[in-house]
Amino acid sequence: MCRACGQAGFIGGDAPPHSCPACHSTDIRSHEELFQLSLAHVDCDAFYASVEKRDDPSIRDRPVIVGGRERGVVAAACYIARKFGVRSAMPTWQALKRCPDAVVIRPRMDHYVAIGRDIRNRMLALTPLVQPVSIDEAFLDL
């Protein structure tokens, strides 16, 4: 398979060519199981904010910011808050200036870790080949 253009299934011979017949790139990959591999990337977007919305349905349709108060920073912002330009690592005072009606919730890390562990266990129930990236993200070899 050519990594430059994606050309696959080269015709002729058992050995892959030294360059791609379509684009002439030499960035060729070959393996007998190449087209049998199945990987999944799982990432729980806006994880902390999503957990808070799940736990408190009254804020489901409101902009939610998880982070410190006035002198803190945004740890997570739901998609509604993001529409106002709120982003992770933004100072909270700046986020509230952009989205004054946002619900600000202090982080509950122990809770997020427990939920992240539950999600990871669900991944492990599918395959033992889980490569964690963060509390809410992993690659799974299916």
Please provide a written account of the structure:
- The protein is an alpha+beta fold and 142 residues long.
- The chain folds into 2 domains: 1-36, no CATH class; 42-141, MutS, DNA mismatch repair protein, domain I (3-Layer(aba) Sandwich).
- The protein is built from 4 helices and 6 strands, in the order βαββααβαββ.
- The chain has helices spanning 47-55, 79-82, 92-98, 109-126, and strands at 39-43, 64-67, 74-77, 103-105, 130-134, 137-141.
- The chain has a 3-stranded antiparallel beta sheet with strand order 1-6-5, with helices on one face.
- β5 (130-134) and β6 (137-141) form a beta hairpin.
- It starts with 38 loop residues before the first strand and ends with a strand.
- The model has no long low-confidence stretch (mean pLDDT 90).
Please describe the topology of this protein.
Layout: E1 39-43, H1 47-55, E2 64-67, E3 74-77, H2 79-82, H3 92-98, E4 103-105, H4 109-126, E5 130-134, E6 137-141
